[in-house]
Amino acid sequence: MKKLLLLSIIISNSTFGNFIISAQGFGSQPLFKFNQSNYSSGVGLELGWGYEFKLIDSLMFEINGHFQFGENGDKNIILPIGRYSISNDFTSSHLEIKIRKNYGSFEPYIGLHVGIGRYHTDELLVNKSSNPEESFTYRDMLFSRKIFQYGASVGAYIKIRPNLYFDFGASINAGGESVNFIALPSIMDEKGVLDYNVNESIPTVLLFNFGIVVSIAPFSWSDYSSTSQYENDYEDIYYGDERPVCKPKKPLKKNNDHSKGHHNDQKKDRKLIKKGKTPIGF
Question: What is the DSSP string of 102-132?
């Protein structure tokens, strides 16, 4: 943590480049055996933070950290115990290096990344009863696995205004290990009896992204320190015999309101009982 803070301070005092932050949406499509195993396509959100600097006159270099949150389909089934949902999701965090070529308002790029992905299948059971005491929401993770991932990206920045860009492109996340998931097209419900296939495959996912990138000039740490010192000096000034009076904070009131919303989680620590693959109770 200290090393990361020191690196941030060094970068902040540098006039060599700019910080960049990004927010993007994406569509995802499984490829190869991952697609053949019936892993569904989906959508998601990507957030990024990084640093850019110029290599030569028209060539920019970026180093970024990205966090991706993807939802790849869900299936809802109405059972006697309530509404039951199964969903396949993934999260990914990776470090990326990227090179951009400046053609005025158009800047194409290529990039490489490595990181960690987590693929998980979740179940959700919701029972909304007219009696609040009988209503509940139950969540659990059926499968989950973290794996090493790597990949590449291509795309382009289009300058909207100085330091503001529209980003569109494509990237691929490839895994080195297999994961388990429920094939959503295989889910069948016959007269309240649930059945599905559990598949295993190595993840390979193609992402089509679009979003906004902002370039921010680094702040001066020395200016920040000077401002903080000024504020500290100002607070130490007294006039005449006046002294600051420290009033005790009012104690926080304990919330003893056991409203009906609390009943929604009353079964979250219980084990869901299943007959085969069909939830029947707790």
Answer: -BTTEEEEEEEEEEEEEEEEEEEEEE--SSG
Q: What is the pLDDT along the chain (282 residues), one digit of tens a residue?
A: 444 444 444 444 444 689 999 999 999 999 999 999 999 999 999 999 999 999 888 899 999 999 999 999 999 999 888 899 999 999 999 999 999 999 999 999 999 999 999 999 999 999 877 677 777 889 999 999 999 999 999 999 999 999 999 999 999 999 989 999 999 999 998 878 899 999 999 999 999 999 999 999 875 444 545 444 544 444 444 445 555 555 555 555 555 544 444 445 445 567 788 878 888 777
CATH code for the part of the protein at 17-125+139-234: 2.40.160.20
User: Is 169:155 a contact under the CB 8 Å cutoff?
Assistant: yes
Tell me how crowded residue 148 is: count the other CB atoms within 10 A of its CB.
12
CA dihedral 108, 112, 117, 119 (to 10 degrees): 60
